[in-house]
């Protein structure tokens, strides 16, 4: 049974126990002892089921069972035992007498209703507070349950000695606990001091965070605190790209202007968009390894401002395009110039990081393709007179298609088309399809009509990829797959979420009469079991300098200065999630746990992580280097990276709506400072 299933079953069991106990109390009040007994029996079984689900969740990791073991399950069991031992015998006596019960007995009603209040704490704490159950959560929960029992006693039995003092005490406890829960931690502030001077006694954090953050900051095996030795301060504004390419490279200059526009899709549908240069997606940016990419960004009329973030590309921190951290947002009438060397070949993309959830959905994104330096030309020298990297490859006979998938105004757009793309390819010609998911949620691709290889994931080539056929390719938000195959003598169709997005025909004239394959029963591609193993610079058994846990959940928290039902990490929402602090050269292990019911595509800026394990199982295929990985409900991912790109970096869920609701934090190199304040990067 999966962890996700256990989480759902635990919630259902808690809800069933609540309904059973409260229903039993209502039946007893209506003098229906037999019905009350039956409902109480259901509630007892549901409580036992919660014991089983909690045991199963604890086996998957303490993260999944912490609040259950320390608070809600003992409370539910105590309530169940009280109801069974106090109300049970009285109900049995009444039911066996086959006569209507006398006036409702407080010794029956109060334990039954009390057990219901105790049972409802289980799903309530899980859904509203999440992980971890801090002292404030315990205080509020116990006060509310006890207060509800007191109120029930007053309603049923009338006067209760000491009730006024008890009620005042419980009310004070509930208010105090609520206040503790919503006291914001110190906000993450990377200005005015270095990481070491702001961190707490050498822990992992730039900011405070109460009980929740203290548990996150606790040292783990193999984890050493960041030294308190003095570190020279380095402003992030000094961590910029060079002004020259590598020897043999060239400078590739692009001008991007952000503006609103009305876009007409291929179907004729018109949509209001935010664009780069009046088009969606924005102009493709292409380069060859060793080139210098220089992009001048201007803003015509996007009132909220814009930036450029190079998704998956390890640029210097000052070029990362995170407003409030590495630069200010580019407002209307302003401009900003980005420069970086194209050192990594592969498939990448760019997008705004200011109000990014809305901005990307409205169209502020484009593609970044870097081709390997041609082997036949050791200098790799090229010009910039309109010849792109893709067209150079195409000149050798390869069909190279860049296919960003996007939901635009409710319509799926592949590339710039909202209708199936029709292309011809000569039989036997090499084909490369670069799939990019620019949406907030996973997309499922399927390629029919040929066997193929997944040659690269997130821009990194895989070791000895094998042939694939009849597989569903689940692509995380922000992720990329490169598919390669020789064009067969029959048509090939790329399906996007079950619908044709691209048709390739071997003839000179493409045709639309290709039947759509039923892919509903196809297995899902598992990148952790694909390709051949190879040596890596570090492994799961290496000694790590820093270890960080991120437990993803939902709960009530302060985010952006206001209470919200936030997407949380370690019980906090931005900006109260402690910053992860590292030093250059550190080997860092990051464990990401998903307790929630939603998928979280996790994305660390400026670094590529090596997957060490998923749900405790190590990869069986090629080494998997990712910049975005889908943490599905109930999953635990363990990844690692070498801290080799100094700066201040976002570390966030790339469902940008989740990030906007709090699921974002910073990774900071010790000593790096920022003059910018007040934003988390959109």
From TrEMBL:
Keywords for the protein's UniProt record, in alphabetical order: Copper, Membrane, Metal-binding, Oxidoreductase, Transmembrane, Transmembrane helix
Transmembrane feature ranges: 6-30, 37-63, 69-87, 108-128, 134-153, 165-183
Pfam families, alphabetized: Cu-oxidase_2, Cu-oxidase_3
UniProt entry tagged with the keyword Lyase: no
All copies of domain Plastocyanin-like, residue ranges: 260-373, 558-668
Biased composition (Low complexity): 195-206
Any one Gene Ontology molecular-function term assigned to this protein's record: oxidoreductase activity
Highest rank taxon of the organism: Bacteria
CDD domains named in the record: CuRO_D2_2dMcoN_like (cd04202)
Region of interest: Disordered: 188-219
Cited PANTHER family: FI03373P-RELATED, MULTI-COPPER OXIDASE
The name this protein goes by in its record: FtsP/CotA-like multicopper oxidase with cupredoxin domain
């Amino acid at each position: 049974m999966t962890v996700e299933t256990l989480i759902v079953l635990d919630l259902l069991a808690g809800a069933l126990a609540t309904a059973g106990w409260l229903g039993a109390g209502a039946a007893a009040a209506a003098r229906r002892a037999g019905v009350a007994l039956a409902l109480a029996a259901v509630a007892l079984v549901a409580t036992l089921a919660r014991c089983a689900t909690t045991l199963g969740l604890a086996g998957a990791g303490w993260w999944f069972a912490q609040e259950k073991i320390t608070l809600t399950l003992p409370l539910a069991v105590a309530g169940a035992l009280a109801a069974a031992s106090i109300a049970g015998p009285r109900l049995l006596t009444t039911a066996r007498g086959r006569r209507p019960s006398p006036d409702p007995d407080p010794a029956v009603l109060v334990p039954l209703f009390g057990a219901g209040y105790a049972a409802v704490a289980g799903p309530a704490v899980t859904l509203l507070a999440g992980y971890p159950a801090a002292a404030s959560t315990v205080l509020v929960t116990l006060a509310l349950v006890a207060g509800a029992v007191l109120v029930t006693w007053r309603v049923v039995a009338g006067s209760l000695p000491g009730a006024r003092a008890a009620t005042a005490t419980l009310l004070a406890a509930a208010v105090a606990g609520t206040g503790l829960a919503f006291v914001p931690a110190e906000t993450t502030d990377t200005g005015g001091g270095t990481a070491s001077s702001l961190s707490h006694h050498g822990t992992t954090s730039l900011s405070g965070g109460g009980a929740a953050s203290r548990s996150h900051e606790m040292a783990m095996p193999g984890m050493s605190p960041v030294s308190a030795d003095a570190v020279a301060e380095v402003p992030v504004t000094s961590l910029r790209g060079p002004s020259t390419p590598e020897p043999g490279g060239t400078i590739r200059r692009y001008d991007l202007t952000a503006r609103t526009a009305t876009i007409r899709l291929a179907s004729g549908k018109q949509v209001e968009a935010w664009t780069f240069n009046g088009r969606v997606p924005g102009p493709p940016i292409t380069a060859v390894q060793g080139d210098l990419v220089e992009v001048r960004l201007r803003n015509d009329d996007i009132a909220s401002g814009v930036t450029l973030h190079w998704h998956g590309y390890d640029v210097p921190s000052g070029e990362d395009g995170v407003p409030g951290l590495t630069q200010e947002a580019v407002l209307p009438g302003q401009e900003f110039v980005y420069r970086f060397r194209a050192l990594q070949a592969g498939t990448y993309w760019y997008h705004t990081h200011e109000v990014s959830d809305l901005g990307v959905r409205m169209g502020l994104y484009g593609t970044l393709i870097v081709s390997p330096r041609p082997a036949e030309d050791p200098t790799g020298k090229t010009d910039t007179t309109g010849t792109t990297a893709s067209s150079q490859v195409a000149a050798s006979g390869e069909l190279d298609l860049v296919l960003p998938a996007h939901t635009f105004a409710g319509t799926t757009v592949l590339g710039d088309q909202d209708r199936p793309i029709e292309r011809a390819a000569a039989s036997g010609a090499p084909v490369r399809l670069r799939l990019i998911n620019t949406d907030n949620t996973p997309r499922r691709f399927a390629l029919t009509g040929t066997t193929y290889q997944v040659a690269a994931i997130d821009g990194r080539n895989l070791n000895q990829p094998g042939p694939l056929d009849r597989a569903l390719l689940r692509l995380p938000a922000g992720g990329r797959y490169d598919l390669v195959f020789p064009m067969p003598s029959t048509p090939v169709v790329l399906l996007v979420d079950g619908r044709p997005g691209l048709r390739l025909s071997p003839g000179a004239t493409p045709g639309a009469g290709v039947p759509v394959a039923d892919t509903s029963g196809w297995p899902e591609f598992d990148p952790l079991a694909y390709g051949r193993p190879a040596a890596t610079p570090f492994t799961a058994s290496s000694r790590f300098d820093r270890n960080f846990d991120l437990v993803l959940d939902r709960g009530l928290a302060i985010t952006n200065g206001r209470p919200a039902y936030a997407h949380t990490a370690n019980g906090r929402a931005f900006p109260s999630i402690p910053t992860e602090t590292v030093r250059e050269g550190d080997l860092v292990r990051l464990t990401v746990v998903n307790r929630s019911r939603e998928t979280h595509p996790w994305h660390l800026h400026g670094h590529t992580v090596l997957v060490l394990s998923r749900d405790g199982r190590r990869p069986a295929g090629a080494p998997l280097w990712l910049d975005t990985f889908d943490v599905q409900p109930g999953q635990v991912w363990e990844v690692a990276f070498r801290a080799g790109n100094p700066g201040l970096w976002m570390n966030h869920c790339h469902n940008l709506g989740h990030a906007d609701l709090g699921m974002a934090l910073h990774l900071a190199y010790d000593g790096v400072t920022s003059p910018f304040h007040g934003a988390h990067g959109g």
